[in-house]
Amino acid sequence: MIDILFRLLQLYQGAIVVYILMSWFPGARESSIGRFLSAIVEPYLTPFRRIIPPLGMIDISGIVALLTLQFAAQGLVVLLSLF
């Protein structure tokens, strides 16, 4: 159970990384894969973008979102391993 949950969280983190990297390529987010990833990732990234404004051309909210998800995943694995 824990292994499946951890794998799903890793898959979601990968989706976030791909979505962030797609911003470097013009028109990539308008592709079918970009729209699919947007539907999955944007609900999680939006609160971070509201809290952390972009620093010039650099948006670090994605990095903060990834770190937060990683810490939450590790905490959840520790909590679930106690049971």
From TrEMBL:
Domain of life: Bacteria
InterPro entries (alphabetical): CCB3/YggT
Keyword Transmembrane helix attributed: yes
GO cellular component, one term: membrane
Keywords: Membrane, Transmembrane, Transmembrane helix
Stored Pfam families: CCB3_YggT (PF02325)
Transmembrane segments: 6-25, 58-82
Coiled coil: none
Key word Mitochondrion present: no
Family stated for the protein in its record: Belongs to the YggT family.
PANTHER family assigned: PROTEIN COFACTOR ASSEMBLY OF COMPLEX C SUBUNIT B CCB3, CHLOROPLASTIC-RELATED (PTHR33219:SF14), YLMG HOMOLOG PROTEIN 2, CHLOROPLASTIC (PTHR33219)
Name by which UniProt lists this protein: YggT family protein
